[in-house]
Amino acid sequence: MFNYNFRWAQAMASLPRMLEGALVTLEVALLSMVIGISIAIVLTLFRLSGSRILSAVAATWVEIARNTPALFQIYMVHFGLGGFGIHLSPYLSLLIGIAFNNAGYLSENFRGALKGIPETQTRSARSLGMTPIAAFRYVVMPQMLRISFLPMTNQMVWAILMTSLGTVVAMNTDLYGVTSDLNARTFRTFELFAIAAMIFYLITKTVTLSARLLAARLFRY
Amino acid sequence: MIEIENVRKSFGALEVLKGIDLTVAKGEVLTVIGGSGSGKSTLLTCINGLEPIDSGRILVDGIEVHARSTNLNQLRRKIGIVFQQYNAFPHLTVLENVMLAQRKVLGRPKAEAEAEAVRQLNHVGLGDKLTVYPSRLSGGQQQRMAIARALAMSPDYMLFDEVTSALDPQLVGEVLDTLRLLASEGMTMICVTHEMKFAREVSDRVAFFHQGVMAEIAPPAQLFEAPESPDLRKFLAATH
């Protein structure tokens, strides 16, 4: 029956290693967001470009990113590209996989945000002599990013949690990977994963709270 | 000088400009009156190339606006336009609104752009609102900011597209005062407006548009006191 003995002290001894893993997790998530947001902006421009080919590229990206499991996406980056002779490290595969997913979701958020910005804003910017790119860069984009700020925060939380999917490409330096390795050696399963879950929780809470503070600082209008 | 030669323009099956001929000289103040859908606003957006035209041509200082070889971004620096919807950039302060295009289009250094912005904002009576965001301004103040924003580009021509139509009645006066000030300073202006009293006061000439045709054009005294076309007489009777 229930004869599991909790050994928290033993599990806690692994905390420093797990915190190192947490840093890797945070790093991958942050980088994946930076890359994801940049690509999402490019995809949004593709959709606005009026070119059918570019729009189709953006639409396909969004469809795949949003309608297939993130786990498959990461798996494909590692083993799918591997089939073409492109061998990426687990770290890079995980990063690219999550960034791919982020870009898809964020681009869709940006599209929604653009609907809330009147066409007359662009018209006004153009009438002041701005090029279409300048009008987007200085007038439309800042408003788009503001409207999308909350969805971007959500996506960041997702990105942090998605790092655990690195396990399918044998990633073992992130929080999940480290915990999993420790577990394989000590079998303190409940304790280790409870601690890991707590760390995940603390990271995501910190991220959402700092995002709220940042928003108050950034958006004074 | 703005020269408009036999300009035609349709939106789908609807022909909104049916061969307009018009010349506006440097320093002239022309107001354009007429009912909704008479084509007067469309003409303004054609002059700065925001709208393409179907035939005819528009020359601004001898440069053909709709020629393929014309650099519209360059041409638009000469022509300021202010719309009915003031289109303040909400994420920028009043000062930043007026600085943005100076910096990014004209490439003016920051200090110079700022000095010019402050000068123009003082000019329109917003010198005490520099660090405020547009959401804190009234409609009239936002519209005056939009005017300052256009003026800061040092344009040779200013086009005003029903700039008081979206304003509460008590705010109309402050914007019209700004336009009067510009007119008195010798700015070349085309104002599409529904404010007859204003048109009568400031204009060198008034043009009456009716169903895509410029039905009548004359100095205000003549146009308002002795309207020739029956459509204009009807229009004036209805607006009084």
Short key terms for the protein model shown above:
heterodimer; A: 221 residues; mainly alpha; MetI-like fold; 79% helix; B: 240 residues; alpha/beta; Rossmann fold; 6-stranded mixed beta sheet; 4-stranded antiparallel beta sheet; 9 helices; 25% strand
Topology of this structure?
The complex is a heterodimer of chains A (221) and B (240).
Chain A: H1 8-12, H2 15-48, H3 52-67, H4 70-82, H5 90-115, H6 119-127, H7 132-147, H8 149-162, H9 175-186, H10 189-218
Helix pairs in contact in A: 2-3, 2-5, 2-8, 2-9, 2-10, 3-5, 4-5, 5-8, 6-7, 8-10, 9-10
Chain B: E1 2-11, E2 14-24, E3 29-34, H1 40-47, E4 55-60, E5 63-64, H2 72-75, E6 79-82, H3 94-104, H4 110-123, H5 139-151, E7 157-161, H6 169-184, E8 188-192, H7 196-202, E9 205-210, E10 213-218, H8 220-225, H9 230-239
Parallel strand pairs in B: 3-8, 3-9, 6-7, 7-8
Antiparallel strand pairs in B: 1-2, 1-4, 4-5, 9-10
Helix pairs in contact in B: 3-4, 3-5, 4-5, 5-6
